[in-house]
Specification:
Helix content: 55-70%
Shape: flat
Strand content: under 5%
Mean pLDDT: 82
Number of strands: 0
Radius of gyration: 21 Å
Largest sheet: none
Structural class: mainly alpha
Low-confidence stretches: none
Length: 89
Amino acid sequence: MITRKLILVFICISYSNPASKVVFLGTLNKQLAICVYDKNGELDRTKGNQAGCYNLSPVFDWIRHCIISIFLVFFIAFLPLFLQGMVVQ
């Protein structure tokens, strides 16, 4: 009985820890000045003075890729279920 509760606690912690970090990074996106780069990889000077900006664009790209991969895995996992439902009808 204790092991089931302990497993559920570990599952909740393993989900909430990365989720809280993603929420924290989402708030950083609105509060901090993010550096804007041109196609050559240099700071884009047409956007004005970017002194004190933070290079968080690779982090946000990584989060975007993770979210897309999660939805892709769920789609692939449930595709046989949807196909079976269509075949039965």
